[in-house]
């Protein structure tokens, strides 16, 4: 709503040809440094099981890189539920390895640092997982579980001729069946020749939503903006836990915060000792060529 | 009490009216020529003076009207005497504004109160040719504008929801059109506005910071008139006239923007179905049933409409509409010369409706607040030393935080955020009385009760915002919680001499309604929520002290006022709170305290060719919440250390007049990020580079000051034609004369080539000339 109103008010100003801007100097005091963690596991794609560790930097620091943190000890441990307790299976604990220590990785993935990965981890639906990190003398801990997968049912589209562009617009809708239980979703959309993601952040777009408003039924999801005829569209409909959802929902608003009515938005971390999240994704994947 | 009555005293009383329209003149001065006895008319234009038998010459004065003198013999009978004053401008064909040479500002107990007429508002320079009462009041000391071009206002460090905005007694919950660029008040329909920013008398309550009374024109009882104006983005018209000459009259007014029509030629066929516009209607009528009874009705309806149809996706369209509706019926009854009453029935509503459609799917979400209100005021003047008011008010509030209906896929949407209902009662009594010749006091007490009632079902949520069950269910007659409160009000004036006084006031006020917003601006989707079990009423105390002095036979008014205002149970929302369609809204709230204090200087030249005022305010306003800013106090967003307003009007000749406005304010306090981090990394195989998002981190709240706000505006009014039957004038305005780039907001962009974060300040309005044509016939 606020986003919409931002557009409306700026649109009105543009109509009146009045809004202007100029570059200014802002002198901000340095912020408090903090570690940042993004840990992701899922039941289907091994390349999306990774932990990324970085640190915050002063706002006007010219460093625009990932600012990753190396030399951390990172472990993911599966557990089992026994009554109200969780028993951690230390013998199944897996250490995630800093990929920057792999020879030649700089050539393959230039610009990456602070990524911890282990192809042997094989997370399961419904199993609790514990994340433990020791980095720069800080201890970080987090918990997650991969929820049941909600499958993508059908994907269909509609063509409209775009007279301005002289081409065909493809409006895509997919359906999924939301159950009676509370569900939280994060949808990643990859639009390109390669349907696979190299890190969640490589997706073209994201949507984060829950079923508070639309619950228990066949739920269509329509993309308001068109795709091109012949595009490869890959959909990752993921189910996430509630705490994980609250993090990604706040992340989405923080990442799109701007305009005259922006308010400071802090992400709602679900880990202790750092900013960030540990998310178990129950992934339903579908890739289609829309033509 | 009996001892205080002069047994030889007789009473002279009556009404002061506009001779042309028959409208009551509020605040007109009736005094003996020697200045020893006098009175000011009340909201009904009524006055009353106690005199001993004798011959008196009275002088009756009112701003912008010809002064009258009348000699009266007072014997043993009470005398009823009405006065009709003629407008100075019409009668003399001179537009020189003369002021009342009275010292009411010095002698009365009122402080922290200002009044402007609709006509005064029209003379001020305006942006886009649109005069606006809410923008005009921000030129007064202690009242700050929310931002560039906005109608939001902040009084003595209080929030925007702490101002009670009344249009003919009806509450206007969202007083803005065009997202705050214009207010809902059509200046052609406005008779006068009154702002009480402190020392609130006991007959007012419900908000912590101020009362803004917008009184609409009563309608001309003698002849038909039409007023109007054509501006750059909207036009307005007002018509008034007698229903039965000398006995009853009507006034109707309308306004509509035509931005949508203006830009239509520049839009493509697909875009033409999109648009934004607002409109509003006012209607008012009154009838004098007899000497003792008068009925008046006032109504308002206005809406903003935003339509959108996707230029590419034919299936996608939505409409957002919001607005106020209000109606009030007032019965004035005079029991006798000393005792009369006002009974008012009021209905008011604010609502927002969103309709979204995408093909076969669609839904509608609405929200709002609605009040049914009855108010009873009694005015009793037993003798010359006492002026007593007492009465009560009852409001039945209905809060509708959200209702959603629609169909998406196989899912039928029928969701309602729990409605809430409340009774709000207030009873008050106050007496303005004199102790000797130098002391005047206004002592009052207001007892308030706020009761949240059923039907209501408590819903229970876990720490993750999920509903985990239902708590107690309340039926319609069940009381959920009651908050009683006592609000003592005290104001006193010590008259040092005939043109100098010292005044002091103390008030305690409760506020039971709260605005749910995370932004500084008021949005259509902002919700009003009631006090409840979790949400305690807001409470404020205000102490004010002032010195008032007039010079040169009241040609110049000056004052200095200091205030100190602690506020409790202030409401904020958790950082990142989502307020939209949130059943768990109360758990997004946090509660803290506020403190505001300052000094206001004011000097005004009231009449002559040059008129105007200059105001300066030094102030500080802070908030403290345990959950924000590590629990440390921080500056309120609209804390403004220095604030200057200068308004100067000059009458060059019969045809030309001009007004200059200068404003200066310390920049708003704002929260800027102190650090950032990269998140959600991935590798883009097409561009062969890493992808990630930057997220900002905020350590301190409102720790950064935007650049100072200042600008100068000028306007010139050319009286093109003025006859008894027709008058037209042109208003030429230049907004932001020296093209100051005033901050609207700041945003940051990473420059990947220069490897640095760049800060940009957006400013809305450079130097902007505008023209408007106004007419009357």
Could you please describe the fold and organization of this structure?
The complex is a heterodimer of chains A (291) and B (777). Chain A is mainly beta and 291 residues long. Chain A contains 3 helices and 19 strands. In chain A, the strands form 2 sheets. In chain A, strands 2, 3, 5, 6, 7, 8, 9, 10, 13, 14, 17, 18 and 19 form a 13-stranded mixed β-sheet that branches. In chain A, strands 11, 12, 15 and 16 form a 4-stranded antiparallel β-sheet that branches. Chain A is globular. The N terminus of chain A is likely disordered. Chain B is mostly beta strands. Chain B has 5 helices and 51 strands. Chain B is globular. In chain B, 45% of the residues are buried. At the A-B interface, helix 1, strand 1, strand 3, strand 4 and strand 12 of A face strand 27, strand 44, strand 45, strand 49 and strand 50 of B.
In short:
The complex is a heterodimer of chains A (291) and B (777). Chain A is mainly beta.
Give the N-to-C terminal Cα separation of chain B.
53 Å
Whole-angstrom Rg of chain A: 21 Å
Low-confidence stretches of chain A: 1-10, 13-17
- Per DSSP, the total helix count of chain B is 5
What is the succession of H and E elements of chain A?
HEEEEEEEHEEEEEEEEEEHEE
Bin the strand percentage of chain B: over 45%
Number of strands of chain A: 19
Distance between the termini of chain A: 33 Å
Spell out the blueprint of helices and strands.
The complex is a heterodimer of chains A (291) and B (777).
Chain A: H1 2-15, E1 20-24, E2 35-42, E3 50-55, E4 57-58, E5 73-82, E6 85-88, E7 94-98, H2 105-108, E8 115-117, E9 128-135, E10 138-145, E11 152-162, E12 167-178, E13 184-191, E14 205-210, E15 217-222, E16 227-228, E17 232-239, H3 242-255, E18 271-272, E19 275-289
Parallel strand pairs in A: 2-19
Antiparallel strand pairs in A: 2-3, 3-8, 5-6, 5-7, 5-9, 7-8, 9-10, 10-18, 11-12, 12-15, 12-16, 13-14, 13-17, 17-19
Chain B: E1 9-18, E2 29-32, E3 38-40, E4 46-52, E5 54-61, E6 68-74, E7 79-80, E8 83-85, H1 88-92, H2 104-107, E9 113-117, H3 118-123, H4 133-137, E10 143-145, E11 153-155, E12 163-167, E13 170-171, E14 176-177, E15 182-183, E16 190-196, E17 210-216, E18 225-230, E19 234-244, E20 248-257, H5 259-263, E21 275-290, E22 293-309, E23 316-336, E24 339-358, E25 361-383, E26 386-408, E27 411-417, E28 420-435, E29 439-453, E30 456-461, E31 467-474, E32 479-497, E33 500-511, E34 513-516, E35 527-530, E36 538-551, E37 556-573, E38 589-605, E39 610-624, E40 634-635, E41 642-651, E42 656-665, E43 669-670, E44 675-684, E45 689-697, E46 704-705, E47 709-722, E48 727-735, E49 745-751, E50 756-763, E51 768-776
Parallel strand pairs in B: 1-7, 1-8, 12-17
Antiparallel strand pairs in B: 1-4, 2-3, 2-5, 5-6, 9-16, 10-11, 12-13, 14-15, 16-17, 18-19, 18-51, 19-20, 20-21, 21-22, 22-23, 23-24, 24-25, 25-26, 26-27, 26-28, 28-29, 29-32, 30-31, 32-33, 33-36, 34-35, 36-37, 37-38, 38-39, 39-40, 39-41, 41-42, 42-47, 43-46, 44-45, 47-48, 48-51, 49-50
């Amino acid at each position: 709503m606020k986003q919409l109103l931002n557009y409306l008010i700026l649109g009105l100003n543009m109509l009146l040809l009045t809004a202007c801007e100029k570059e200014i100097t802002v002198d901000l005091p340095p912020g408090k440094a903090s570690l940042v963690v993004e840990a992701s596991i899922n039941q289907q794609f091994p390349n999306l099981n990774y932990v990324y560790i970085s640190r915050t930097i002063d706002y006007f620091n010219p460093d625009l890189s990932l600012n990753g943190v190396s030399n951390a000890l990172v472990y993911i441990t599966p557990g089992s539920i026994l009554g109200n307790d969780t028993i951690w299976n230390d013998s199944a604990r897996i250490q995630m390895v800093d990929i920057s220590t792999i020879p030649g990785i700089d050539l393959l993935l230039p610009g990456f640092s602070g990524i911890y990965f282990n192809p042997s981890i094989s997370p399961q639906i419904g199993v609790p997982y514990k994340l433990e990190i020791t980095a720069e003398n800080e201890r970080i801990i987090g918990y997650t579980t991969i929820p049941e997968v909600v499958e993508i049912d059908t994907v269909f589209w509609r063509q409209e001729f775009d007279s301005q562009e002289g081409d065909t617009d493809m409006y895509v809708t997919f359906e999924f069946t939301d159950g009676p239980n509370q569900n939280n979703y994060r949808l990643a959309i990859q639009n390109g020749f390669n349907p696979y993601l190299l890190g969640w952040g490589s997706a073209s777009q994201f949507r984060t939503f829950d079923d508070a408003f639309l619950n228990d039924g066949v739920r269509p999801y329509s993309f308001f903006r068109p795709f091109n005829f012949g595009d490869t569209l890959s959909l990752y409909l993921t189910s996430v836990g509630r705490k994980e959802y609250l993090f990604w929902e706040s992340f989405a608003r923080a990442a799109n915060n701007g305009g005259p009515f922006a308010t400071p938005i802090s992400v709602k971390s679900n880990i202790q000792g750092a900013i960030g999240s540990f998310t178990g994704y129950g992934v339903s994947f579908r890739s289609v060529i829309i033509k | 009490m009996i001892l205080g009555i002069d047994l030889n005293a007789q009473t002279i009383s009556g009404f002061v009216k506009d001779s042309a329209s028959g409208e009551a003149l509020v605040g007109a001065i009736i005094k003996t020529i020697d200045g020893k006895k006098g009175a000011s008319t009340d909201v009904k234009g009524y006055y009353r003076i106690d005199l001993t038998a004798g011959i008196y010459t009275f002088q009756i004065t009112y701003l912008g009207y010809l002064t009258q003198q009348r000699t009266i013999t007072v014997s043993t009978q009470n005398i009823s005497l009405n006065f009709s004053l003629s407008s100075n401008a019409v009668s003399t064909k001179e537009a020189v504004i003369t002021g009342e040479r009275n010292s009411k500002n010095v002698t009365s107990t009122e402080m922290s109160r200002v009044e402007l007429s609709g006509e005064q508002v029209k003379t001020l320079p305006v942006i886009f040719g649109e005069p606006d009462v809410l923008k005009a009041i921000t030129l007064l000391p202690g009242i700050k504008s929310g931002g560039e071009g906005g109608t939001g206002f902040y009084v003595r460090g209080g929030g925007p929801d702490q101002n009670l905005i009344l249009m003919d007694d009806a509450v206007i919950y969202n007083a803005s059109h065009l997202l705050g660029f214009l207010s809902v008040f059509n200046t052609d329909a406005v008779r006068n506005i009154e702002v009480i920013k402190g020392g609130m008398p006991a007959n007012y309550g419900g908000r912590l910071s101020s009362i803004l009374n917008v009184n609409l024109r009563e309608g001309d009882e003698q002849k038909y008139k039409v007023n109007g104006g054509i501006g750059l983005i909207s036009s307005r018209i007002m018509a008034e006239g007698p229903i039965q000459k000398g006995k009853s009259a009507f006034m109707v007014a309308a306004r509509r923007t035509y931005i949508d029509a203006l830009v239509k030629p520049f839009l493509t066929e697909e875009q033409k179905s999109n648009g934004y516009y607002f409109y509003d209607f006012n209607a008012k009528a009154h009838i004098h049933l007899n000497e003792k009874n008068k009925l008046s009705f006032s109504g308002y309806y206005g809406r903003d409409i935003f339509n959108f149809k996707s230029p590419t996706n034919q299936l996608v369209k939505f409409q957002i509409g919001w607005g106020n509706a209000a109606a009030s019926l007032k019965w004035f009854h005079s029991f006798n010369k000393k005792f009369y009453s006002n009974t008012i029935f009021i209905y008011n509503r604010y609502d927002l409706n969103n309709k979204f459609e995408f093909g076969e799917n669609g839904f509608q979400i609405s929200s709002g607040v609605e009040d049914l209100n009855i108010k009873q005021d009694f005015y009793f003047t037993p003798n010359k030393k006492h002026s007593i008011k007492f009465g009560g008010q009852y409001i039945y509030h209905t809060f509708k935080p959200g209702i959603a209906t629609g169909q998406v896929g196989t899912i039928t949407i029928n969701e309602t955020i729990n409605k809430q209902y409340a009774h709000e009662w207030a009873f008050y009594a106050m007496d303005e009385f004199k102790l000797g010749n130098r002391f005047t006091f206004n002592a009052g007490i207001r007892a308030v009760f706020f009761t949240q009632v059923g039907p209501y079902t408590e819903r229970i949520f876990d720490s993750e915002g999920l509903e985990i069950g239902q708590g107690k269910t309340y039926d319609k007659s069940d009381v959920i919680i009651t908050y009683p409160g006592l609000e003592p009000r005290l104001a006193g004036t010590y008259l040092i001499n005939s043109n100098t006084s010292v005044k002091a006031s103390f008030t305690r006020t409760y506020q039971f309604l709260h605005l749910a917003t995370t932004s500084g601006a008021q949005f259509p989707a902002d919700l009003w929520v009631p006090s409840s079990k979790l949400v305690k009423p807001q409470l404020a105390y205000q102490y004010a002290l002032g010195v008032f002095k007039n010079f040169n036979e009241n040609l110049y008014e000056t004052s200095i006022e200091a205030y100190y205002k602690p506020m409790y149970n202030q409401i904020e929302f958790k950082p990142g709170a989502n307020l939209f369609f949130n059943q768990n809204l109360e758990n997004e709230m946090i509660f803290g305290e506020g403190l505001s204090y300052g000094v206001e200087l004011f000097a005004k030249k009231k009449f002559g060719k040059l008129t105007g005022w200059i105001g300066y305010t030094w102030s500080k306003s802070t908030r403290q919440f345990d959950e924000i800013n590590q629990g440390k106090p921080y500056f309120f967003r609209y804390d403004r250390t220095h604030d200057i307003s200068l308004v100067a009007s000059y009458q060059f000749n019969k045809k030309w007049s001009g007004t200059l406005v200068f404003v200066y304010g310390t920049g708003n306090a704002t929260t800027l990020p102190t650090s950032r981090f990269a998140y959600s990394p991935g590798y883009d195989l097409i561009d062969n580079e890493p992808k990630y998002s930057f997220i900002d981190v905020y350590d301190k709240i409102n720790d950064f000051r935007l650049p100072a706000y200042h600008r100068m505006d000028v306007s010139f009014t050319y009286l093109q034609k003025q006859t008894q039957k027709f008058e037209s004038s042109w208003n030429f305005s230049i907004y932001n004369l020296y093209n100051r780039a005033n901050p609207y907001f700041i945003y940051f962009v990473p420059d990947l080539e220069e490897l640095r974060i760049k800060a940009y300040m957006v400013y809305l309005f450079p130097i902007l000339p505008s023209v408007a044509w106004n007419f009357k016939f």
